TrEMBL record:
Segments of this protein annotated with the region Disordered: 1-24
Record Pfam families: IGPS (PF00218)
Protein name per Swiss-Prot or TrEMBL: indole-3-glycerol-phosphate synthase
Positions of the Indole-3-glycerol phosphate synthase domain: 118-379
Listed Gene3D superfamilies: Aldolase class I (3.20.20.70)
Catalytic activity: 1-(2-carboxyphenylamino)-1-deoxy-D-ribulose 5-phosphate + H(+) = (1S,2R)-1-C-(indol-3-yl)glycerol 3-phosphate + CO2 + H2O
TM helices/strands, residue ranges: none
Enzyme Commission number(s) from the entry: 4.1.1.48
Keywords: Amino-acid biosynthesis, Aromatic amino acid biosynthesis, Decarboxylase, Lyase, Tryptophan biosynthesis
Metabolic or biological pathway, per its Swiss-Prot or TrEMBL entry: Amino-acid biosynthesis; L-tryptophan biosynthesis; L-tryptophan from chorismate: step 4/5
Source species taxonomy: Eukaryota, Viridiplantae, Streptophyta, Embryophyta, Tracheophyta
InterPro entries referenced in this protein's UniProt entry, alphabetically: Aldolase_TIM, Indole-3-glycerol_P_synth, Indole-3-glycerol_P_synth_dom, Indole-3-GlycerolPSynthase_CS, RibuloseP-bd_barrel
Biological process, per Gene Ontology: L-tryptophan biosynthetic process
Length: 389
């Protein structure tokens, strides 16, 4: 694809469709610096900037660091792609800018444009988390955790609800908005909604903490925890870094979501261990058979969520839960005693019955209940009976 080159002061450039993108920075730099004078004249968007003066030693060190970062970024994307993960963890970055003299440029192409909403969320999360980490380094979080109250048994609460009612245990979601459905509820009081859910018979709650795309927050999670709500809480985040798990634990989570479409196997393994260490349950979410295969190959997983919504296209199809529980997958899940959660797009008692029949022991529901003027009554409508009794 043809690229538009414009000079920017940002140190990041994206050149995935540039012919030398897959070459290491140095060889790229040599090629590009040779090409530059010719290309300059054909790209009117180029504006030269004053070079920043840096001493040669500093420059070398900075180069080495940027080259390393570039290599690590490429490596992560490659490992993920080899496991069928289409989501790239961050925009493919290019070599350091000063390899091409005083110019800084950005090539606009497929490389630096997210391919879908999930990728956009993940790229934004990458920036957000690195800023949060700077403000609250892991060592600081670990100190807080030493004094944090114990977590509540998320999986136990789901099992108890299932055996009490004979219906799937409900994880009721405190959800103000989503990129696919827009604002779900204008008068959004997270604590009031959480209390109504608890009263209506929810076994656990899910609290969205992503601000930009779901209008959630960690303040909501913390407020619900501090309001005396007894249900265990799932922190609904896009986790890309173990730091977020520690942060969620401090903010009052009892469980956290890990999305297989975003995380390579090794990350899931490592994060599941961290969750255990911190007393959190991990809800590992899958959407297709390949993700289910991957996750079933990882030891120590107690909870798998099957998302009926494709996070890349927003399409919802509740038969996805059934499809992923058929045959060998279903057998393995029963052998391993894994609890499956049917997620998204559940509106009626028939929908709940359908996913229960498919084999789930829990459901995760947001839209259909959060939209009701009394979300507790919304639960009664969803199950076709009062499950608080
Ligand atoms: O509002 P719904 O269709 O009932 O869906 C709830 C929940 O499953 C959905 O919010 C969800 C499932 N997985 C996610 C991952 C990120 C953000 C949101 C989600």
């Amino acid at each position: 694809m043809e690229g538009l080159i414009s000079l920017k002061s940002s140190p990041r450039t994206s050149l995935s469709s540039f012919p030398s993108f897959n070459q290491p920075p140095n060889s790229f730099a040599r090629r590009f610096s040779m090409d530059l004078p010719l290309r300059r004249s054909s790209f009117p968007a180029i504006r030269a900037q004053q070079p920043v003066t840096i001493s040669p030693k500093e420059e070398d060190e900075e180069d080495a660091l940027k080259v390393k970062e570039w290599e690590v970024g490429m490596f992560q994307n490659e490992v993920a792609a080899s496991q069928g993960i289409r989501i790239r963890r961050r925009p493919p970055t290019s070599p350091p800018l000063h390899y091409v003299g005083p110019f800084e440029f950005r090539l606009q192409n497929d490389g630096n444009t997210p391919r879908n909403i999930l990728e956009e969320i993940v790229w934004h999360k990458d920036t957000e988390v690195s800023q949060m980490k700077e403000r609250k380094p892991l060592a600081t979080l670990k100190k807080f955790i030493e004094n944090a109250p114990l977590t509540r048994d998320f999986v136990g609460a789901l099992k108890a609800a299932h055996s009490r009612t004979g219906l799937p245990g409900l994880i009721a979601e405190v959800k103000k908005a989503s990129p696919s459905r827009g604002i779900l509820r204008e008068d959004f009081d997270p604590v009031e909604i959480a209390r109504a859910y608890e009263k209506g018979g929810a076994a656990c709650l899910s609290v969205l903490t992503d601000e930009k795309f779901f209008k959630g927050s960690f303040e909501n999670l913390e407020a619900i925890r501090n309001a005396g709500v007894q249900c265990p809480l799932l922190c609904k985040e896009f986790v890309i870094d173990a730091w977020q798990i520690y942060y969620a634990r401090i903010k009052g989570a009892d469980a956290i979501l890990l999305i297989a479409a975003v995380l390579p196997d090794l990350d899931i393994r490592y994060m599941v261990k961290i969750c255990k260490m911190l007393g959190l349950a991990a809800l590992v979410e899958v959407h297709d058979e390949r993700e289910m295969d991957r996750v079933l190959g990882i030891d120590g997983i107690e909870l798998i969520g099957i998302n009926n919504r494709n996070l890349e296209t927003f399409e919802v199809d509740i038969s996805n839960t059934k499809k992923l529980l058929e045959g060998e997958h279903g057998q393995l899940i029963r052998q391993k005693d894994i609890i499956v959660v049917g997620e998204s797009g559940l509106f009626t008692p028939d929908h709940v019955g359908y996913v229960q029949e498919a084999g789930v022991k829990a459901v995760l529901v947001g839209e259909s209940i959060v939209k009701q003027s009394d979300p507790g009554k919304g639960i009664t409508g969803l199950f076709g009976k009062d499950i608080s009794l």
